[in-house]
Design goal:
alpha+beta; 4 domains; 6-stranded antiparallel sheet; two-stranded antiparallel sheet; globular; binds adenosine monophosphate; binds magnesium ion
């Protein structure tokens, strides 16, 4: 029977969602069943229709109280088995021992309308209260960091970079203490799996090799079913995770994304971007830029990311040694990293420069470019976007681009090399520009844009998040009327600091 009341209808639809929880079928040592802790009077802060579509949730139902309650953790949807998973990890290069979902609660999974990653997407509430793994933490996430995670997840997806997705953010006036008191929020995120490198390390360092095998089998069955047919599935799993991690980091480098906290507990075995904290997009180019204010040593600086990705794969390889068997076989799997990284980055740089062919000296052209971007601290996103406007035979076409450089002569020198390289492949201006605009985004989540949306949200105006999301969902398009979202950061943003505090 049709229910007339839209909120009752939404409640009925949510109650009928086919939620299951495969993870809860793992042995009890893998997790603790944990109900979310309700928050007082929750309200909707943001929703992603794109993410909702992946799991068959209608945007109309996301406005309902039933939805808000379910995705704040104030009610439990039928079929869900809320739990917090255990994992360990290396933080800033040091073994940190047991960590685990200290404020994330896995509700279960829904069938997904996507092929890769496959079949099912898990839904996880982040900030839904304390768990046995909270250690000294309060189990909460603040509005500021939840908005950042929400926006960046969806922005990365639109850029075509593998990532967890964000379904929604709800908020409450309840406060928790960070540097100052801040209001709390719950972000719902989705991924085919939230298993981390640190999940494997957990069992290895606890000498529990049977659990290690069970975890590997779970990951293979769930995420990499084709690897079952390999002669050595565990070695193949390590190689595949290594390859995907390498490709992911090449994609980060190509778009100027910095994760900020590449600890092994924040590295996904799916090779997707996971755990958005003090991330940043490169603005004034500096290869050594550190986006995380807490990272005083610069371990996770932009130019360190490829190396750290490999270090993390080594940590995973160590943890998988009892499964793989021989040290040489672990090394063989890890050897996949460098070629996968180099090939991906090289391909992406060719695309970013609009080059269709591959020439022997291309890497010199790329190196020379990064050297001049560095010496003039040119805005990363803007440079590549405007590079598409350069016309082969029109010196006027790159005036605006040239103006981005303090050292104009250096730009002129490079532009000369670039033009002759383009002539070598008879490049056609219009076609090249079109191709370049499909890989060089105009709109990325600059810190100041996130901050403006956060400032408004802290005054209970959530419209800035929705507007920014709508822009970031089409990062490669020209968006007449939205050009100001591509503006360089204003002076006040020079002092914005993002840290691990979230
Ligand atoms: P992160 O640096 O956010 O990746 O978190 C590292 C570890 O600390 C993970 O085990 C988190 O679950 C935990 N954690 C971070 N913040 C909190 C919090 N407010 N309450 C409980 N646990 C937290
Ligand atoms: Mg984490």
């Amino acid at each position: 029977m049709e229910t007339a009341d839209p909120s009752e209808q939404a409640a009925a639809v949510l109650a009928a969602l086919p939620i299951s929880n495969d993870f809860s079928e793992l042995p009890p040592a893998f997790y603790t069943r944990q109900q979310p802790t309700p928050l007082p009077s929750p309200y909707l802060v943001a929703t992603s229709a794109g993410a909702a579509k992946l799991v068959g949730i209608e945007p109309a139902h996301m406005e309902s109280q039933a939805f808000i309650d379910a995705f704040t953790g104030n009610s439990v949807l039928p079929g869900s088995v809320p739990l917090a998973a255990v994992y360990s990890g290396h933080q800033f290069g040091v073994w940190a021992g047991q960590l685990g979902d200290g404020r994330a609660i896995l509700l279960g999974e829904l069938p997904a309308a996507i092929e890769d990653p496959p079949r099912k997407l898990e839904l996880q509430l982040k900030g839904a209260g304390r768990t046995p793994y909270s250690r000294m933490g309060d189990g909460r996430a603040v509005l500021r960091s939840s908005i950042r995670e929400f926006l960046c997840s969806e922005a990365m997806a639109a850029l075509g970079i593998p990532t967890t997705r964000a379904l929604c953010v709800t908020g409450s006036d309840a406060r928790v203490m960070r540097e100052t008191p801040e209001t709390t929020a719950v972000a719902t995120r989705m991924a085919a799996s939230f298993v981390r490198f640190g999940s494997f390390e957990h069992w290895y360092y606890n000498h529990r090799h049977e659990e290690l095998r069970i975890l590997a089998d779970h990951v293979i069955d769930r995420c990499y079913p084709a690897l079952r047919n390999e002669p050595r599935p565990y070695q193949a799993l390590l190689a595949e995770v290594t390859r995907r991690t390498a490709r992911l980091i090449a994609q980060w480098q190509a778009v100027g994304f910095m994760h900020g906290v590449m600890n092994t507990d924040n590295m996904s075995v799916l090779g997707i971007t996971l755990d958005y904290g003090p991330f940043g997009f490169m603005e004034a180019f500096d290869a050594g830029h550190i986006c995380n204010h807490t990272d005083s040593q610069g371990r996770y600086a932009y130019h360190q990311q490829p190396q750290v990705g490999l270090w993390n794969c080594h940590a995973l390889g160590q943890a998988m040694l009892p499964l793989v068997g021989e040290v040489d076989d672990v090394h063989e799997a890890l050897a996949a990293y460098k070629p996968a990284y180099t090939e991906t980055l090289d391909r992406l740089l060719h695309q970013k420069l609009g080059l269709e062919s591959v020439e022997e000296n291309d890497s010199k052209l790329f190196d020379a470019l990064f050297a001049i971007l560095q010496s003039s601290h040119v805005d990363f996103t803007r440079f590549f976007r405007q590079l598409g406007d350069l016309a082969l035979d029109d010196p006027q076409s790159d005036q605006a681009l040239r103006d981005l450089f303090i050292d104009r002569a250096a730009f002129d020198g490079w532009a000369l090399q670039y033009r002759s390289r383009l002539r070598l492949e008879n490049s056609i201006d219009a076609a090249r520009c079109e191709r370049m605009n499909r890989v060089n985004p105009k709109y990325v989540l600059r810190n100041y844009l996130a901050q403006q949306a956060i400032d408004l949200a802290q005054k209970k105006d959530f419209s800035g998040i929705a507007r920014l999301l709508a822009v970031l969902e089409h990062p490669y398009d020209e968006q007449p009327g939205n050009e100001h979202y591509a503006d360089l950061p204003p002076d006040w943003a020079a002092h914005l600091e993002v840290s691990c505090s979230s």
